[in-house]
User: Fold this.
Amino acid sequence: DAMVIQNPRYQVTQFGKPVTLSCSQTLNHNVMYWYQQKSSQAPKLLFHYYDKDFNNEADTPDNFQSRRPNTSFCFLDIRSPGLGDAAMYLCAIASGGRIETQYFGPGTRLLVL
Amino acid sequence: DQQVKQNSPSLSVQEGRISILNCDYTNSMFDYFLWYKKYPAEGPTFLISISSIKDKNEDGRFTVFLNKSAKHLSLHIVPSQPGDSAVYFCAASARGSQGNLIFGKGTKLSVKP
Assistant:
């Protein structure tokens, strides 16, 4: 059974129209991550939650926000998507130890028209 | 500035032979390294990891070697199988981070029957 579920798998939005991507997990892990991966590039960490503690990467644009209403769910909000935000968005979880393996969801492919 | 580098974008190997995927890093604070495998339209799947206190870790057909002095690690797959065809990402975690991973750009492995 899937540990990390991402919906939708494909999302099409219009330039400037807010969009929300969702991630849920079945393991009650403490840590949830959001990565952005563009074609032929490395996955890039946007931010992560350690429980309710939000940690933003220094170079994550303000256009990207996140919410974690409970342990199981985490949302990525893109307030005003630009063409450059078209990418695969990956959610990952980890249980919170120092030496940790992250488990990824299948990703949401975002297309901006 | 890339801290984790996979200099070979692609690798082609005959079934049954050894596949060797390479990864170099620049940050001496990295102390935990992982390899992920990714099929198209799926999220990365954890494959194998190694702590900096070791120089080798083996799991079935997969072995990871770490050379700290050269800041280099490699993944060996023996024997290679057609089902191993995927993109392989090297990732590293630094002391002082909350397990945050820095990824390389990946190497696409093709195993030909």
